[in-house]
């Protein structure tokens, strides 16, 4: 009996889908690196990074305040403490002042949505070890038992998802001064007590509780991935977790892994390749060029201006990357007006020019120096030529595109510096 054509098509689809979603990944890099990157990540192009924690209380110098004060012994940090705090004041004494009383997650989400960003990545825990949710393995060093007395991860996540944005979580594997980690380090990482009791339980908890679309791992560089049990966690994440089909991960899973293993590549902070990479990548960049966390002593000259941010984003997207732009909120939960102004400015530009950014692919030529510098992106049969400076003349010539009588040229908006 002949099977109807429509039934054959349906059967083929079902078999294809079963093959696609039935892949099981084993806990080794050969298998894990073969996992296709979920499509949503390459399509969104632009995201917001948020560094927020106890370091937002001193708000001086850098989010590495504790390390620079107690280990690097930088004079300006020591002097800051001598001038402003009593003898015997410890870093943990900052936590009660991380009160976040003005934190309105819907207001933040409105700003992020207005920026044109399609995903948001919040620090769930930085290297200081303070968790922005009620981690059961953090004792009282967390935002529910201390400081804000709120689940910051959950509250922001709910607001972000109401606006159909993707929600990601930054998580530091290591903690500078955790005694269990320091004990493992002293053993040459031959013991894994910190991994078994702290790092991995928190990662599993974050995934099961908040179901993030993205995990931005960090703090991996002192120990190999075998110490962190990274491949075991990623195999569970890709095979059995509640986000197994959508979750995206970066490349910071152990000493030597970055720019080599994982989902997309961050490589170094503010990574800027000179040519088109052969793997999906992301540039994380901070509006404040000195610090990722909020600084009360920042100067306007130390901040990226709007044209510089847009140029940077265009460069990244033309070379196939995503652009993750960081802002650091204050300890009381405010996004500084100067940061908000930058974000809303990007959104205004994307409202006009977003077609040349979202869901695009690198073209066969990514840039040329014609009359003025030009960056190219593409989408199907459309090529976008992006000029980030005014040509200062009525006509200019693009050297690379080859036109025909069917070619249609549309002109959008210039960004005048």
From TrEMBL:
One Pfam family this sequence matches: Alpha_L_fucos
Keyword Glycoprotein: yes
Catalytic activity, EC: 3.2.1.51
GO BP field: fucose metabolic process; glycoside catabolic process
Gene Ontology molecular-function annotations: alpha-L-fucosidase activity
InterPro entries listed in its UniProt record: FUC_metazoa-typ, GH, Glyco_hydro_29, Glyco_hydro_29_CS, Glyco_hydro_29_N
Signal peptide: 1-20
GO cellular component: lysosome
PROSITE patterns: ALPHA_L_FUCOSIDASE
Keywords: Glycoprotein, Glycosidase, Hydrolase, Signal
Catalytic activity: an alpha-L-fucoside + H2O = L-fucose + an alcohol
Enzyme class: hydrolase
Listed Gene3D superfamilies: Glycosidases
Self-association state and partner proteins as the record states: Homotetramer.
Family (UniProt): Belongs to the glycosyl hydrolase 29 family.
Annotated function: Alpha-L-fucosidase is responsible for hydrolyzing the alpha-1,6-linked fucose joined to the reducing-end N-acetylglucosamine of the carbohydrate moieties of glycoproteins.
Designated name of the protein: Alpha-L-fucosidase
Species annotation: Sinocyclocheilus grahami (Dianchi golden-line fish)
